[in-house]
Amino acid sequence: MKRKLRALAQKYENAEFVTNDPSQVLRRFAEPREQEIASFIAAQLSFGKRELFLAKLNSMFEEIERNSMKPSEWISSGKYENFFPKSENKFYRFFSYADMNALCARLAEILQENESLGEAIRKNYESSIEQKNSLSLVSALIAIFPKIKCVSQDASGACKKLHMFLRWMVRQNSPVDLGLWKWASAKDLLIPLDVHVMQEAAHLGLLSPKCSPSAKTTLILTRKMAQIWPDDPAKGDFALFGLGVDEEK
User: Fold this and answer.
1) DSSP 3-state assignment of 91?
2) Can you give the residue range of the structural domain that contains 147?
């Protein structure tokens, strides 16, 4: 099984992976500061049908580009309020325009107080958590977005979107992930867990078929992947994705 997973990860972690994946937005902007912001917002909307959330993301990025702005400028200047008015009408699924407005407002506060989103997370990670554990990184991220509906608020949950964002930011030398944060280690990343990933993992006997999406399940699966990739367990995400693709062929 280890050989099979290694082969799948090797096969599917490539530039073509991004074609129908939310990671396609990661390199839409050139500067790391802008990539962080665009990637973070993209991660929060990455659920449901891909063609639907990608269309919503592209509409937002096109609005930024129409204003001849970078994401950080669009956020910090308050221009986002024209695109995300404080309306309870739905922007995407259960997120309203007001929810997106609140997310952008919090990002504006973070950028006012820090050089970048990554810098804010780094400072919180290094200063506010004395005893580091497997959930420390995602907890540091959650802590700077209190009461923001678009951002998972409970580190004991699966927090798939946050772990996916962290994978994008931390993993180095990948044709998919950006690896912007040199201060964080890939060995501390957790698998971005959703129902599809759980099903594939259960099919391989890596998880119980009765498990549910949670931090506990995420930790179990990540530890299994660490037996194959001790310094980069999140690489297993590509293997499990690839397993599903191969089964559909």
Assistant:
1) strand
2) 2-248
Average pLDDT over residues 105-111: 99
Q: Tell me the pLDDT tens digit for each residue of 70-80.
A: 999 999 999 99
- Tokens describing residue 5: 């997973």
pLDDT tens sequence across 17-55: 777 778 888 889 999 999 999 999 999 999 999 899 999
Q: How far apart are CA 191 and CA 168, in angstroms?
A: 12
Nearest to 214 by CA among 144, 135, 145: 135
Owner of token pair 């044709």: 175
Note the pLDDT tens digit of each residue in 206-216: 999 999 999 99
Question: Could you identify the residue written with the tokens 């659920």?
Answer: 47
Whole-number Å distance between alpha carbons of 40 and 45? 9
Which residues partner with 92 through β-bridges?
Answer: 95
CA distance 79 to 230: 44
- Give the pLDDT score at 26: 87
Q: Side-chain half-sphere of 86: how many Cα atoms within 13 Å?
A: 3
Residue 215, CA distances (Å) to 130, 169, 208, 220, 233 in order: 20, 20, 15, 9, 15
Give the count of domains, the chain.
Answer: 1
Q: Are 53 and 133 in contact (CB under 8 A)?
A: no
The CA distance from 118 to 25, in Å, is 17
